[in-house]
Amino acid sequence: MPSAQPLQLSRLLLAALGIRLYTQHQDRIPQAGPVLLVSNHRSFLDAPLLMAALNRPIRFACHHYMGQVPVMRDIVEKMGCFPLDLPEHRQQTFFNQAVQLLQSQQVVGLFPEGAEPMVKQTLPKQVGVFQRGFAHLALRAPVQDLVVLPVAIVSDAEATNAAVPLRLLSFFDPSEPLFSQEGWHPMVIYQRVNLLVGRPQWISPAQRQHYQGKQAKALVTELTQQCRNEIDDLLRQGSY
After folding, report:
1. Which structural domains are found in the chain, ordered by start?
2. Burial (CB count <10 Å: 0-12, 13-18, 19+), residue 208
């Protein structure tokens, strides 16, 4: 059984910051079983927001440097996150960790846009290019009844501050090219935010069977685009 501590900490953090959270389409949220959650990403608050909305602990894959900074490392561990490995080992270690969590009926959370929207300030309803790693995981993982759940985070009111110089972060993760530029890492603090849950997509045995050769590439492209389009549509729907 996953620890309930990340969910409790998420609720405490949102309450302490006075964030007003509204969730739409809650009937689409699976109440049990393995879930691969994908979402847009602009703030360090996205993980606790998604946990509070789903009412389930979520094991988020987070940036490598978060596991290197002493205080931050303790925070992400208590939140149930698992930092990604260095690039040369990242793909295999991530797959192994994620499969183990999904096989134990947990929720694994991924932000397919990567670190860029966190480092480069973006608009609330803007979504970038999705990396395809989550789709490869969903189609390749030996997990029965796996659900891919797209969720859109729509900020209605927020404040943005400068957190740390980007070059300082390169000390902890020199492999990240985004940290080699001038400027500051922005920190988005939501004040009022809506979470819109997309249509869940169950991975079928037939899809897994065809995950090979050219068919694999086509399936990955299709699943990636479906999830991005779903989140983009939800972002356009906006708020109440």
Report:
1. 5-237 (3.40.1130)
2. middle
Please check the confidence at residue 132 and state whether its pLDDT lies above 90.
yes
Which pair of structure tokens corresponds to residue 29?
């949220």
Side chain identity at 36, as an amino acid letter? L
Angle between the N-to-C axes of helices 213-237 and 133-140, in degrees from 0 to 180, rounded to the nearest 10 = 120
For 112, counting Cβ atoms within 10 Å of its Cβ (0-12 exposed, 13-18 middle, 19+ buried), the class is buried
pLDDT in tens, 87-102: 666 677 888 889 999 9
Distances (CA, A) of 65 to 3, 49, 173: 24, 22, 5
Helix (H) or strand (E) holding 184: strand 184-197
**pTM: predicted TM-score of the whole model, two decimal places:** 0.88
Q: Are strands 201-202 and 20-24 parallel, antiparallel or unpaired?
A: unpaired
**Strands 147-165 and 201-202, bridge-based pairing:** antiparallel
Q: Which two tokens stand for residue 4?
A: 């309930």
Distance (Å, rounded) from C-alpha 69 to C-alpha 194?
Answer: 30
51 and 224 Cβ atoms separated by less than 8 Å: no
Q: Which two tokens stand for residue 85?
A: 């490995």
pLDDT score recorded for residue 239: 52
